[in-house]
């Protein structure tokens, strides 16, 4: 039997913390600007949206992330709102500023590059972290090459692991798309899909017997990739 707090903790950890061990792909190293948006389904019914918008200004890549969810698991209602801004110079994260609200509970994290470290000020962790650490924002395919991630909700340093399942064909906007399927195992069980160029195209997981699925609602051609 799951308590309200346990359901919320499991749900929002699944929605936001992912990553893995070293796995290769055909993903390009150059960041391509664009926008991707997913409709979040719970047991086939819409409960929210998740969008990522990537733009460039000179040598800086700017990223805006928005997640909004609301629904019920049995009699237990939940709401979730996440906003995050990332700045990158090439493959190096230079700053991060995120706010996160689960029902009435709020979290936040700010991180800035200082020399060879990321200086993190979050509700879950305050201190220095390796500059090579990536945030748990999913849109960068290289996230799956990490064994630790910076949790974009509260700044915690999370150990992660993932294995490649294989190649599958997904229907995106009525078009068949070949995608690589990765299975995350850790505090939660989550599955991720990226196409052959490293664009994020699907996420799925189960919590307390409920099935959650990300259905891409924007075109592949306009999607960002690193």
Structure description:
It is globular and about 45 Å long. The strands form 2 sheets. Strands 8-7-6-5-4-3-2-1-16-15-14-13-12 form a 13-stranded antiparallel β-sheet, covered by helices on one side. It has a 3-stranded mixed β-sheet with strand order 9-10-11, with no helix packed on it. About 5% of the residues have low confidence. It has one domain. β13 and β14 form a beta hairpin. With 226 residues, the protein is mostly beta strands. The protein is built from 1 helix and 16 strands. The N and C termini lie far apart (41 Å).
The CA-CA distance between the termini, in Å, is: 41 Å
Low-confidence stretches: 18-29
Count the helices. How many?
Answer: 1
Category by helix and strand content: mainly beta
